[in-house]
């Protein structure tokens, strides 16, 4: 019932835009769909305890009713009340369980203690219980002080609204409710609210909204079901074989008075008994796999919602699915066994000859196994290539000897741009003067770590529709940025100390920007504008930089631009220091930051290479899973082929004996037995290639520098499946060749 509410601009197509305090106030006053509406703004909270050591905590500013909407109760103390949000109220802070234990030793008397939070004194009023991390994985909270009566409309912090739906009320009703209110507000305030439509969505969808991660999760789920189907097909074929071998027994039971229902029930109970044993063993395998998986991702730094463990609901789901799979796998063989013609079976002394022969169902199941195996092996092959490419990829940047970290300048102590510029200039000078350091810089986004997007307009280009404006990457950078990463401008000049707020606005564009938006012309001296506002100032292009992975490690939309840090007003900064030692520079960098501001911590210390590797966590989390699933599919398909071949050879034992008695050669017998599944393998490979091609296209956005239809992967899979079929056929064929015709005929 918890939903998130953001804005969509229907004119530009941009989604998940922030909500102002004025919009929230309008909704709170007029809505009828929610028990209560609140809002939050994520932030970094720099907290200094009595030991004087600053710590950066992932924090959030909540409206006073923020905890109440979540129905969250503190472990100690209290949460916020309305008076905490007043402009003149004493700052208060609610602490998370983690920092309470690690920073304050789990002190039960913590409530009422004073700390420094973002440079100002704040009183701890409560501690939240373990596991509470709303909005995502927050560790501390402060009240949001944003009074709509004291802030100009359209100004103030951009928030994410959230609310608890009334019982039995659908999200679609809430969507219609807020859309009606927003339309009225847009008519009243067109200059700030035109084209803005609320987007109501489940809160978890909004917070885990990375499309690539969603696709990887759905793909993992689909491949899991694919392996389940292959396993069911194997069980069904084995039960077919078991039923065939027991046809005479079943016929005798029926002749003695056993009804069809009783016979089917007996065979189903046997299948369920196998399922119970398999479930018990499967739980052991699952727990071992979970332990290995969690160990493998401990250094990957996945998002908070990657939480893999045995839990009640998944266990119940898996157990129920196993039972259904057992029933589905056993029902058809049991039904077919119960329908055998009694007279024919009882007259035939050889149960193998007169029972259930290999039929269309078994062939279809094996063909389906091969098709699914081809598809699953395709996903595994693409991920193997992606992981290999990721490890071997050369970015063309200085990375291993570049130390990086993040810091956030709080608004309370760095309220004006001049104070931020003074700090940035002083810090860069200090870092550059460290022993052994060759260069240092600051930037809003570092190479390989995904810069923000912005809308731009290019001078002399007419845009007839707001959606036609280019959307490119943007980063605010300090002096010596390109030098720090071992790159040089292709043309023009870099930013210098004189490119501050008193100087004309300038920009540097990268090569992809030039190729897409300034083709065939010299971009130096051309002007661009940020946003769609035609009254916004022009920025003059003064340089062209090489592409430096502004869109992250994958770099799928690399066009971007850089602006001077001193002209940007950025608060969240990345720092980069190039010199020997890598992470050993952390202590020196922390000391230099503390010398300028004792309340300011650095966080996420790392080398640039490790930081970039951490940013593509999905390959190292989902990649091994898909590879394991592909290997399981290949193994199970091999087992399925073997079972079918063995079934076929056993069913034709008498025929093989007769043929060999009449002079058939071993190669003729081998061809006869292998011919049972040659057609199925061919059909499976062709159809599987089609499934693999479809999955490859779907995975286009989650593979790393791998062509989606890589012929090498398809060829490897074909070879692997053919070899698996040959291996599966070898034992049954060998057994058939070694049949003694006299013994066989005598037994039959």
Topology of this structure?
Blueprint: E1 2-9, H1 21-30, E2 34-48, E3 54-62, H2 66-70, E4 76-77, E5 92-95, H3 97-104, E6 114-117, E7 120-127, E8 140-143, E9 160-165, H4 171-188, H5 190-193, E10 196-202, H6 203-207, H7 211-245, H8 247-255, H9 260-296, H10 312-338, H11 342-347, H12 351-354, H13 360-392, E11 402-408, H14 417-432, E12 439-443, E13 452-458, E14 471-477, H15 481-484, E15 491-492, E16 506-510, H16 511-517, E17 527-530, E18 538-545, E19 560-564, E20 572-578, H17 586-596, E21 603-607, H18 608-615, H19 617-651, H20 653-661, H21 666-698, H22 711-737, H23 741-747
Parallel strand pairs: 3-8, 5-7, 14-19, 16-18
Antiparallel strand pairs: 1-9, 1-10, 2-3, 2-6, 2-9, 4-7, 5-8, 6-7, 11-20, 11-21, 12-20, 13-14, 13-17, 15-18, 16-19, 17-18
Helix pairs in contact: 1-4, 7-10, 7-13, 7-19, 9-10, 13-19, 13-21, 13-22, 14-17, 19-21, 19-22, 20-23, 21-22
Explain this structure:
There is one protein chain. The protein is an alpha+beta fold and 748 residues long. The strands form 3 sheets. A 6-stranded mixed barrel has the order 2-3-8-5-7-6. Helix 7 (211-245) runs antiparallel to helix 13 (360-392) and helix 7 (211-245) packs parallel to helix 19 (617-651). The chain is elongated, with a radius of gyration of 34 Å. The termini are far apart.
